[in-house]
Design a protein that fits this description.
Blueprint: E1 12-14, H1 39-45, H2 56-66, E2 75-81, H3 84-99, E3 103-110, H4 118-125, E4 131-135, H5 138-151, E5 159-161, H6 170-174, E6 183-185, E7 191-195, E8 198-202
Parallel strand pairs: 2-3, 2-4, 4-5, 5-6
Antiparallel strand pairs: 1-8, 6-7, 7-8
Helix pairs in contact: 4-5
Region (Disordered): 1-37
Pfam families: Peripla_BP_6
Protein name: Vegetative cell wall protein gp1 (Hydroxyproline-rich glycoprotein 1)
Length: 209
């Protein structure tokens, strides 16, 4: 299936592997031992894209995911990669969230390559936030997500992310159902969601194909 820009989707499901990379045979983070992605799995996906700068529409849509009617989300933990675009997105969200009178309990960054990702995973979950916000590159986040599911009480269904993580390869790379329930915003102001092995994109409200 050909991926279409978010504004043309109503919705469209992005099949794993549609970027012509080998589908993952991961069975999810193991019950014990290291949850790190094996080197041969990483090699099958090649170079994943670096995050692009976020847009104002993207930030608005992401905040909208956290603030629907009767939302009880007040506290969040913000996680981000160390690249400039992810840092800037985390900065923008933090400022906007605090401007609403809400709280950021923790802000945590991580490298694209690490020994275990255990320290950032624990820091992100230590304060028991109502939700998590992620601004990240796909590869490092996939590793972190496996560690979060393996070693903490992190819930992807209580997590929203910027557009850089809307990649059809990410669910397979992270492992089956590791990211089930993760939602995010698109650069055009639409949204996307992970459902098991699929990434489904939705256009901005009021847009037409």
């Amino acid at each position: 299936m050909r991926r279409m820009p978010a504004r043309e989707v109503r919705p469209v499901e992005s099949r794993p592997g549609e970027h012509h990379h080998t589908m993952s045979s991961l069975t999810g983070p193991p019950a014990s031992g290291s949850p790190l992605i094996p080197a041969e799995e990483l090699a099958a996906y090649g170079d994943l894209p670096c995050p692009a700068p976020h847009t104002a529409a993207e930030l608005d849509a992401l905040i909208g995911l956290l603030t629907p009617a009767r939302s009880r989300i007040e506290t969040v933990a913000v996680g981000h990669s160390r690249d400039p675009a992810s840092r800037a997105a985390a900065d923008a969200f933090t400022a906007a969230w605090k401007a609403r009178g809400a709280k950021v309990l923790a802000r945590v960054d991580w490298p694209e390559s690490a020994a275990s990702w255990l320290r950032p995973a624990r820091r992100l979950t230590a304060e028991e936030p109502d939700a998590w916000v992620m601004a990240a590159a796909p590869l490092g986040f996939a590793q972190l997500a496996r560690r979060l599911r393996h070693s903490t009480d992190w819930d992807p269904a209580r997590t929203v992310a910027f557009a850089a993580l809307r990649d059809s390869r990410l669910p397979a790379l992270a492992g089956p159902d590791t990211l089930h329930g993760l939602r995010g915003a698109t650069a055009e102001g639409g949204t996307w969601a992970v459902r098991h092995r699929w990434v489904t994109s939705y256009p901005p409200p009021g847009s037409t194909a």
